[in-house]
Design brief:
heterotrimer, A mainly alpha, B alpha/beta, C alpha+beta, A: mainly alpha, rod-shaped, C: six-stranded antiparallel sheet, four-stranded antiparallel sheet, 11% strand
């Protein structure tokens, strides 16, 4: 019964309820700014992205980014604006430069190197095991002799 | 035998980095503007809205730009030092009142003393952003050609003044 | 009085740990039964002392003893009782005491449940654990005493950080430490094996259950942490690649490689050196994580308040423990022989490949986490390595591992027929590729990442299904099932360790599906809502009904009401809150979350805007609960594996001759 009343009360309200307006003035620009802001680091709350941080500087920087986006600057230009003032530290995606080659290429090189070493190791291992079981000539003769002896004793 | 030593080798390398890392401060963000021209700006003065101050007004002189605000607790620590230092007349100090209310800023200077030749009023903080300010107080040493030579993040202490700032200023003033 | 007793107990514990660490090792080296026999009692005594100390700290918190500095810094008389427990481990000193207590508990467990092991092995294992305990107890006593007094005693404490006042916080650290610290047992077994020179299949068999339980706890701990971040932090994120999160994830990756490697070493005697190295690395990485969190070397939201003295101490401790174990490894491991022979196409190869991929993945995360530090220490500038990097580099590394996951369990030991294997997996392969390509269109958006994620999730799930089909077909041959029984009977007859493997692997598929769908199809709406405004997301309508003020025990809350409906039918009422805790200037957002079968409805309040309107964030997150569901399934798999019959039989049986092989069922 209670649910029925709730539904009945809800229907007219929903019918004339307003669609909420987006917080942003310009949703497309906003989406772009926020996407970019998730890749930038807040300088004050250094454990948060510029998108999530509640600090005043973060708010100011988002405002700057919005203005730049509305002016028509590209994502790359906006990021450059930030880096010129705060350095590479502000980028959560480390730029590709000689000092970060190890960072970006290292894992894949490591994977390739380990993979090659692994295959080689497996081959060597199989060879080693194949020959390990076999006796040398001398060992063979010794074994024969021992078998003879024990045969005699029995 | 050698390849079994590899894990140990990698570990020792790691230890070295970690050891060095203990002496570093991961929170400090060094400025990319060092060695670059100080960004241009033109702001109203704090005490007189009609008057303006531009960074190019200081060309030909070595000067300090000190970013502060009346709401900044750490600024109180360094301010007496700045006031005393300004009395020596060694180098002109220009203040940048960052994201403050004009009235609060002026009252603060009245209470705490005014070491500044001029104070530029950066109400919205845009000039601060251009200078890469992320936490007041911050201080810049700028040379005769208008190039930023040093940035102090956090309050200036007597040691920093004596060991870093003054020698640099003397060098630049030659 | 009680805190002083606690302090004294810690000192006694340190002395006992010293004895525990040295005497049994000498005894084992000399084969002196008396000295060897001291291991268990001394270890148990050490644990009891540590437990007493821990108990006295808890007592200080429960009785609001603000004369203890640590209690005053982390608690408050208004803090609800439940959270006072969480507060015990909310700061550095207390969490370290928790660490030591859990190490003591694992030590005690080893002392109790090792009757079937040879005494000299137990002596060595307990001794190694004792040496680790000594280091940590010394660290506590010398630099991080939780029982330090505060004079004059304040009237009230500072209160626990509001973010931590949550049930998840009470359980997450203990669970995480159970895992982290639990790897010390595998580590101790590995060192014991290296010291005694006896690195055989028996060692692997003994190590395995301990390692699996630790791994299980770590899995649950990480899963809990992620779920907690999701509902507590109010942004809907669940993993940030934060250095401390990575510090728990890296040992997990290595631990996963370790449990798989142990399987091969136990069954076939293969990979002995690899397994030993992984065991050493897993625990070393746990210790490294402890260092990273407490030394101030990295910026992290989890980092405790730091002190350079502490950093140096842990670094020295790390250097000694890990350095000496790796030296021992370099010395003794070459003498270990090779295990059984196996072909390129065999389960051994698959497991080796798995080891390799997981290790490279772990190394990658470690590299990314430490890179800013490395560059800074070389004077090459400051940079940040965040989620964009890890997602770009780590995820591609997972792909081959997931592909291998499909093949591995169906591959035979020693030698398998590749063609036959591919034939069996033909329809999972085709089905997953088709679903990967086709399903995203049906769901509304196609990107390569979504397609790959869906394909991989299905690949793993379907290969698990093939495993089930095979097992049913062959179950006639198994001893413990009725040959003519129905499907359920036959399934029930399969060994628990086999079930554990299937459930855990299925958990991986569930996890991948959850991550893919949430990242691919999540809907976020950031809107200004006046009273009665409606916004829709994910097919649901959210209507804002305003806010009310509500008091709480140690905060004031502003509570919003949002009515949710679907196709005109009311679904639920959500109450997001904004809390102002008395002890903290930053307002806290408590999101309101309603899980449904297909996804989560997630609402959080932003800021008040003019005229009673508020900025509100509304999310629809499809299958997000599968992320943690997958994690819990993996842990469940671990539990099933450990509860396998053969371990239970072992405990019931009388003391066996060391090294004699047990009848192993199934897998």
């Amino acid at each position: 019964m209670k649910r029925l009343i709730t539904v009945l009360c809800l229907l007219p309200v929903l019918a004339c309820a307003k669609e909420a307006t987006p917080m942003a003035q310009n949703p497309e620009v906003e989406a772009r700014v926020m996407a970019l802001a998730t890749e930038l680091r807040c300088l004050v709350c250094q454990n948060q992205t510029l998108a999530d941080s509640h600090s005043e500087l973060a708010g100011d920087l988002r405002r700057e980014m919005r203005e730049m986006a509305e002016k028509g600057m590209s994502d790359k230009e906006i990021a450059e604006f930030m880096v010129n003032r705060y350095g590479d530290f502000v980028l959560y995606r480390p730029p590709l430069k000689p000092t970060t080659w190890l960072l970006w290429f290292g894992p894949f090189l490591l994977l390739a190197a380990v993979g090659i070493l692994l295959l080689r190791y497996l081959k060597i291992r199989r060879q080693r095991l194949a020959t390990e079981g076999q006796l040398t000539e001398d060992e063979h003769k010794k074994a024969e002799a021992m078998l003879q002896n024990s045969g005699d004793k029995a | 035998m050698n390849r079994y030593l590899l894990p140990l080798g990698v570990f020792i390398l790691l230890l070295v980095f970690l050891g060095v890392g203990l002496n570093l401060n991961p929170h400090e963000v060094p400025s990319p503007l060092i060695g670059k021209p100080a960004p241009a700006f033109n702001l109203p003065a704090l005490d007189n809205p009609a008057a303006t101050f531009a960074q190019k007004d200081m060309l030909g002189k070595v000067w300090l730009l000190n970013v502060w605000a009346s709401w900044c607790v750490a600024c109180r620590e360094e301010h007496p030092l700045l006031v005393e230092f300004s009395r020596t007349g060694a180098v002109p100090i220009v203040g940048l009142d960052y994201k403050d209310a004009r009235v609060d800023g002026m009252r603060w200077l009245q209470d705490m003393g005014n070491p500044y030749q001029t104070v530029a009023f950066d109400a919205e903080g845009r000039v601060g952003i251009d200078y890469g300010v992320y936490g007041v107080p911050e201080t810049y040493v700028i040379d005769r050609q208008g190039v930023i030579r040093y940035k102090q993040i956090g309050p200036i202490t007597p040691e920093i003044l004596r060991d870093k700032v003054m020698p640099l200023v003397k060098e630049l003033q030659k | 009085m009680i805190p002083e007793l606690g302090h004294f107990a810690l000192i006694l514990a340190a002395l006992l740990a010293l004895v525990q660490g040295i005497v049994p090792l000498i005894g084992a080296a000399r084969n002196d039964a008396t000295l060897i026999g001291l291991a268990r009692p001394v270890a148990s005594g050490q644990f009891l002392m540590v437990l007493f100390a821990f108990g006295s700290l808890i007592y200080a918190f429960l009785t609001n003893d603000f004369s203890v500095l640590y209690v005053a810094s982390n608690s408050n008389s208004d803090l609800p009782m439940v959270y006072r427990f969480g507060a015990v481990w909310g700061g550095h000193e207390g969490s370290l005491l928790l660490w030591v207590t859990i190490l003591g508990a694992w030590t005690f467990a080893v002392a109790l449940f090792s009757k079937h092991l040879p005494d000299d092995t137990v002596a060595r294992v307990l001794a190694v654990m004792g040496l680790v305990s000594v280091g940590l107890l010394a660290f506590l006593l010398l630099t991080s005493n939780p029982f330090e007094r505060l004079f004059p005693m304040p009237l009230n404490g500072r209160d626990l950080n509001p973010l931590l006042q949550d049930p998840g916080m009470v359980f997450h650290p203990p669970m995480l430490y159970m895992g982290y610290v639990g790897f010390s047992v595998a580590f101790a077994f590995a060192i014991a094996a290296l010291l005694s020179g006896r690195l055989d299949a028996a060692w692997a068999r003994w190590s395995r259950p301990w390692t699996t339980v630790a791994w299980m706890c770590l899995t649950i701990g990480i899963t809990m942490g992620s779920a907690w971040a999701y509902y507590e932090l109010g942004w809907g994120g669940w993993w940030f690649w934060d250095p401390v999160e990575n510090a728990s994830f890296i040992p997990w990756l290595v631990g996963t490689a370790l449990i798989h490697s142990l399987a091969a070493t136990e069954k076939r005697g293969s990979f002995k050196s690899w397994t030993v190295l992984l065991a050493i690395c897993a625990f070393s990485l746990s210790l490294l994580g402890t260092f990273l969190v407490r030394s101030g070397v990295l910026t992290s939201v989890h980092a405790f308040a730091t002190d350079p003295r502490r950093g140096i101490f842990i670094l020295l401790f790390l250097a000694i423990v890990v350095g000496s174990s790796l030296m021992l490894f370099a010395w003794r491991a070459p003498k270990v022989g090779l295990g059984g022979k196996f072909e390129l196409a065999s389960r051994e190869s698959m497991l080796l490949g798995n080891n390799m991929l997981l290790s490279v993945a772990a190394a990658t995360v470690l590299l990314g986490t430490l890179y800013p530090l490395i560059l800074d220490s070389l004077g090459l500038g400051k940079l940040s390595v965040g989620p964009p990097y890890f997602e770009a580099v780590f995820v591609p590394l997972l792909v081959p591992a997931l592909i291998l996951l499909g093949f591995g369990p169906l591959t035979r030991w020693k030698k398998t027929n590749m063609q036959e294997l591919l034939a069996r997996l033909r329809w999972p392969l085709v089905a997953s590729i088709l679903l990967g390509i086709g399903l995203p269109f049906a769901l509304g958006k196609w990107t390569p990442m979504i397609a790959m994620g869906i394909a991989l999730a299905f690949w793993v799930a379907l290969s698990v299904a093939v495993g089930f089909a095979d097992a049913l077909k062959h179950s006639v041959a198994l001893k413990h099932s009725a040959a003519s029984g129905g499907v359920l009977t036959r399934l029930a007859g399969l060994s628990r360790s086999w079930w554990g493997m299937q459930v855990a692997h299925l958990g991986v598929a569930v996890f991948v599906a959850g991550v893919t769908l949430v990242k691919g199809y999540e809907v976020e709406k950031d809107v200004k809502m006046e009273i009665d405004d409606v916004v829709s997301a994910g097919g649901y309508q959210f209507q804002f009904k305003g806010v009310v003020e509500m008091p709480g025990p140690n905060y004031r809350a502003t509570r919003g009401t949002v009515l949710v409906s679907h196709n005109g039918q009311p679904v639920t009422e959500l109450n997001p809150e904004k809390r102002a805790y008395f002890s903290s200037p930053m307002p806290q957002t408590e999101a309101a979350i309603r899980p449904t079968l297909t996804g989560d409805l997630y609402v959080s309040l932003g800021e008040p805007v003019a005229n009673g309107a508020w900025s509100v964030r509304v999310y629809y997150k499809p299958l997000v609960d599968w992320i943690w569901g997958g994690g819990l399934m993996m842990a469940l798999g671990g539990f099933l594996a450990v509860s396998d019959r053969r371990y239970r039989l072992q405990r019931r049986a009388a003391k066996q001759v060391a090294g004699s092989p047990l009848q192993v069922q199934g897998v």
